[in-house]
Amino acid sequence: MILDQESGAGFASNDMFLFGQIDMKIKLIPGNSAGTVVAYYLTSDQPNRDEIDFEFLGNVSGQPYILQTNVYADGFDNREERIYLWFDPTQDFHSYSILWNLHQIVFFVDAIPIRTYRNHADKGVAFPRWQPMGVKATIWNGDSWATRGGRDKTDWSKGPFVASFGDYKIDACIWKGNPRFCRAETPTNWWNNDGFSSLTGTQRRWFKWVRRYHMIYDYCQDNARFQNNLPEECSLPKY
After folding, report:
1. pTM of structure
2. Of the listed 51, 80, 81, 232, which one is catalytic?
3. 3-state secondary structure string, 8-69?
4. What is the pLDDT of residues 172-224, one digit of tens each?
5. Strands 215-218 and 9-12
6. Is 233 an annotated catalytic residue?
7. Which of 6, 55, 185, 232 is catalytic?
């Protein structure tokens, strides 16, 4: 996908899905990519939309790439987390995955879980579980906010900016109008089975490693933003 001064770009799945796993191979914009945003996400495209986001925020040459994740549930977001990637994502393709089931949402980078969002609907926390979502990817100019809060602008002399997408796999329940089929625990809907209801022991160790050494922003630690009234899920288990 190419971004220049005239236009961004994007693509989308033809089908909508309710639960499953999506894997996408991406190689990000090399060099000075300040101001650019490459996004890969699931979205229901409804007014009260559900959405599960990977957003890669461009950087000045030599600085680490920031990966921002976010979850919209019933139209509300404000659930941003940011990490520095522990490798150069412009040199080769890496796998970015979303596991979405009745129990949890898990974001993976090269099979390492970097974030979870659990289904705590029974405690009043919104969770995407009714609206089918399509897969989308876009590249666009976000220099009002993307790099150092908008202080570093897009240098169009370095363009056009190219993000490369490779192999992808969509192993998910195709929406046909009846949620019952997608919510069932069956061999086909493997993601709904108990083995995927939480992180494994090994996954928990990787999860803690990412959060200890690579996390740079967690909305659940931003008391100033929420005026010491953090969202309910921040006090609930992550796995």
Report:
1. 0.96
2. 51
3. CEEEECCCCEEEEEEEEEEECCCCCCCCEEEEEEEECCCCCCCEEEEEEECCCCCCCCEEEE
4. 999 999 999 999 999 999 999 999 999 999 999 999 999 999 999 999 999 99
5. unpaired
6. no
7. 55
